[in-house]
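A favour, since you know our structure tokens better than I do. Just paste the record in under my message, thanks.
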Amino acid sequence: MSGSITGFSGAVFDCDGILVDSEAPWIELMGDYLESMAADDTAAEDLRGLTAAEAVARLQQLHKSLGSPSDVRPPTAEEVDRAYSAALEHVTAPMPGAPELVASLSGSIPIAVASNGRSGDVRGLLERAGMLDLFDAIITIDDVDQGKPAPDPYLLAAQRLGLAASAVVAFEDSPVGSQAAHTAGCTVIGVNSDPSIELAGEVRLRHFAQLRFDSRTRTLLLDSDN
């Protein structure tokens, strides 16, 4: 199936799992916490896309419902932030096709990042992946009152680009992120190779190789059979 997306004036990207291959450290970290709590019926992937505070709240709920031993406690948000930041220091690989797509958009239309990550982590990841200087704005959890799934990161990103959210295409790989972009009013392009993960949005792709930007017509060309 082929198609196209037109009528947009800017683009906003999630970071983890969309631009940089940084979701694996988060999933591994969440898996370690769940294992220590013997939360065998909860998958680490269920905590994908959450902020540290949101993940901790979920872990605290599980800890209470499971009646975990008193010597086992869920981590604090600060402990999660420190552990995740340490893990991210070794992450350098961009997601396949992301640098090429971002480079093709940069300079043609305004583009931004909207992430639930901390500013230092996000900027470090983008710098190591060679994409930091391509963006016109970078919005992180440090810039908003509420992270995803609230629409705040996308609303602020669009504002910083001088656009209405309805004029923006958003790229997301997680349920909470796609919901945030959808609620903000963006046109959401879901990018995830796992069909079991449900994403809000108008378009669903497996990877960025199925997408190309025509700068002459400012059109995103889709090839979902690729």
Q: What stands out?
A: Residues 23-89 form one domain.
